[in-house]
Each structure stands twice: as C-alpha cells, then as structure tokens.
Amino acid sequence: MTPLSKSLARLLPAPLVAPALAALYAAMMMAILIVGNSGSTEIAYIDVRNQ
Amino acid sequence: MIEIQILLLLLALAAVAISWCCPASVALDAVALWTAAVLVALAPASAPWLLAATVGTPLVLRLGERANRRGLAAAAWSLVLLSAFVAARLTPGVAWIGGAFFTLRLLHVVGDWWMGRLAIPTIRRHLRYQLFLPVMFAGPIHRFETFDRQAERRRWDAPLFLAGIERALVGAFSAFVAGGWFINRIANVADARTKGWDPFLHDWSHAAIEWISLYFVFAGFTAIALGFSLMIGLRLEENFDRPWAARNLIEFWTRWHMSLTRWCRDYVFRPVTAVTRSALAGLAMGMLAMGLWHEFSIYYLFWSFWQALGVVLTRLALRRIAFARVPLAIRMVAGPLSVLAWLSVARPLFSLISRMFA
Questions:
Q1: Is A32 at the interface with chain B, CB within 8 A?
Q2: Which of B90, B168, B197, B282 could form a cystine bridge with B273, CB 3.0-4.6 A?
Q3: Which of B217, B233, B249 is the last residue of a domain?
C-alpha cells in the first residue's frame, strides 16, 4: 500500500479506496499536464545555472 | 520549447527504466553512464570537471594515505574543489548542472575520510554515488554510506516502486501546480492589492508568498528525486520534515533542506566550534556557508547574518520566556507565522538598507 492509499483507507470504506485513488492520480496528472509548464520553476535550489 | 528542468526530470525518469533494463550487477553503473551522457549533452563545460573530480577524489585520497599526509591531501583537494565551484559560479555563461550539490557531496567524502569515518571508496562506487541523475540538480545532498548500503541491498520491490511513482507524482503536483502555478496566481493578486501599501510592507508580503512558493517547488522537486530513487530501488535521505510546523527558527532549520543543514553542521559548524571553542563562531560560519552556497552576493551575506541573528535571538527567547505556558493552539499558529515573518523580512530589510546607503 502506498502512503496515499493508506490515508484514503482510513477515511473511506474499503471498496471506495481504489476508485478514489485512481481519481486522485488522474486529477493530479491532468492538473500537471494542463498547468505544468505555465509557472516559473526557476529557484536557487534547482541547480541549473548560466544556461 | 521545453524547460531544462522538465527535460532533466524526463531524462531522470529514463534512468529508472535503464536501471531495471540492465542486469542488477551493473544497473547503477548504467545509470552513472547515462548521467554522464546527459551532462555531456546538456552542460559540456561542467561534465569533464564533474567526471575528473569524481575519478580524482579516490585517487587523491589514496595518495594522501600512502604518503601518510591525510590532512594535507584533504585540505588541498577541498581547496581545489571549492575553487572550481567558486570559479564556475563567477564565470558568466558556463552551463552548470548540479555543481552546488555535487561539490558538497565531494567535500563530504573528503571530510569523512579525513575524520576516519569513511574508507576510500573505489572509483566505480564513487562514480555510481556521484553520477546519480535523479538527485543531481535538486538534491538531497545524500551521503555516500547510505547510497552505498542501499545500492548493495537493492532488489525489485513492487510496493517500493509504486510508492516511488506516487511520491514523484505528488512531488510534480507540488512543484508545478501548487508552487509554480497556484501560489504564483496568489502572488499576482496580492501584488495588485498591496500596490498602494508602504514599499517595505509590500515587499515583505511579496517575500512571504515567495517563501511559500519556494517550499512547494523545492519540496516538490526533492519529492520527485526521492520518488525516482525509490523506483530505482534506493531509499535516500529526506530533505524536508514539515517545515511549516516549526514553532521557532531553530526548529525550522532542522526541518528545512535538512541535507544541507546537516552538511553545514557536520563540516562547518562542528569543526569551527571545536577550533574556536565558540558556538557563536560556528553558527556564523555555518550560516555564511549556507548563504554563499545559495549565491555569491551581498544579499546572501546579509541573509547569513540575519539567519544567525535569528537563531541567537530564538535561543535567548527560549531560555527566558516560558513558552510552555502559552496555550498549544496559539503556539501552533504563532510559531510558524513568526518564523515566516523572520525569514521573509530579510529581503525587504536588505532593500531598505540598500536604499538608505544608495
């Protein structure tokens, strides 16, 4: 069990855990694909410099 | 055009596939080879240096041991590594991937060998440790012993692999959606609403939102790195422990970018404190190292001083004020807010001082 599925198992009845986890993963992936490249990720901690 | 950070993440994901496509005995060597190829393609200037330093470190240490000049070898080689790092930082136009993290990992190997805590790694093991693409450009500054132990124990573990996928996905969501997009939108709204405010307060609110965004982006990138490492079969050191739950600045620095804080504690704070017999000198030098690691600038000199001052004041306050008597609910809210206020006031304060002297 992954950490998220453990958290969901505490909150939801057993039959709902897998669909809820799938929906959560899908929502996160959709959000990353839609807005992923729109925000700036240039911070000092990401050590890609002088490009 | 695809951003270099995203390209590097995709190439790091390819390293996961490479690690499981190759025979187990050479899987991490293949990842190291892949990392070297990526560096040569994307940062041709830093690649030869990184490779030379990785191969050169065990050789120099062996030379020092044979000549019975451990201190001299460690000091001279550390100076070479630091000089190269400084030169690369100060030379404009040099493409550089992971130089800051990589230099600290090398110094860790040299330092631990000199203190007798680490045997000289073989060149092959050192190459596998240093050339590990998932943690190359956003950390954590993992330790050689942990990596080597994990590499020895590495085997296929489906739950670990799935946990790694989830960690990387949550990390990507944190970095690109929460930090990169959502908080930036909040920052734009806050910027517009605070335009009429006093410049100091306007800058302060902006800096506070920047710190929150920084957390989501940096912790997100670290989570992706650790997720990819789990997918490869290695459980590396954590870099964050809920820093937003810190109730004071000292606690914050034990929860934020922990691998850097531990590095500064082990290789700057403790030696300087031992030599000078002054914890204050150790703290000042530790914070200075941490500040200059971020960037060589007057602002980060000021930042180092400000953080050291914050730690000293926190220690004094903890001694003199009975915080235990303050209701827990108030401590849980006021603590993190005061930490955020202290961290974020550094930039507007520096701007104010600069304006006064300009």
A1: yes
A2: B282
A3: B233
